[in-house]
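Action item from last meeting closed. Structure (162 res):
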C-alpha cells in the first residue's frame, strides 16, 4: 500500500541520498536537493525538518563537518584545502560551523586528534579521493605535444646515441 506518508518518506530519502552522495559539491544547493524530492524549496524544507528533525542545510553542513573531521585527522592538507574539499566556499563559515559542531576550531581539532589516526595521508591523495582535483578536458590532437604522444617528455633525459 502506497500511503502519502510513505511517498513523502521516499521523496525525503531520495533527497537525503543526494546530499550523502554529493556532499562535497559546493554547487549542491537547496533548489537542487528539493528537485530530487520533487518538492518546491519551501515545502521541501518543512517536510525534511518534519522527517529528520533538522533542516536540509543543517544536515548537509553536519555531514560536511564530519568529513572534515576525518580529513583533519588523516590528511596532510591545510585547513583551507579541507574547507574547500568538503564543499564550503568560505573559510570563516567553515570554521564557525566546525567550532559550533565540535566545540573546537579546525586547527585545535587537528592538534588534539592527529595522533589517533593511523598515518597522515599525503594531501594530493586526499584531494584526489575527495574530488578536489578537477579532470582536465582533453579536446583532441591540438593538445598533443609536437611529434605526437610517443614523444612526450616523461621526465627522463632524452636518449643520446652511443
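Sequence:
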Amino acid at each position: 500500500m502506497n500511503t502519502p506518508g510513505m511517498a513523502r518518506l521516499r521523496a525525503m530519502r531520495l533527497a537525503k541520498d543526494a546530499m550523502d552522495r554529493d556532499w562535497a559539491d559546493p554547487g549542491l544547493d537547496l533548489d537542487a536537493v528539493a528537485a530530487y524530492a520533487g518538492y518546491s524549496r519551501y515545502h521541501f524544507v518543512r517536510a525534511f525538518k518534519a522527517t529528520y528533525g533538522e533542516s536540509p542545510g543543517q544536515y548537509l553542513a553536519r555531514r560536511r563537518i564530519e568529513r572534515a573531521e576525518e580529513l583533519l585527522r588523516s590528511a596532510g592538507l591545510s585547513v583551507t584545502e579541507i574547507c574547500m574539499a568538503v564543499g564550503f566556499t568560505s573559510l570563516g563559515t567553515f570554521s564557525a560551523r566546525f567550532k559550533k559542531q565540535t566545540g573546537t576550531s579546525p586547527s585545535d581539532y587537528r592538534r588534539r586528534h592527529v595522533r589517533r589516526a593511523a598515518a597522515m595521508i599525503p594531501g594530493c591523495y586526499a584531494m584526489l579521493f575527495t574530488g578536489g582535483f578537477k579532470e582536465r578536458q582533453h579536446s583532441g590532437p591540438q593538445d598533443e605535444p609536437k611529434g605526437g604522444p610517443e614523444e612526450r617528455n616523461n621526465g627522463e633525459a632524452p636518449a643520446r646515441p652511443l
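Note appended to the action item: The longest strand covers residues 75-76.
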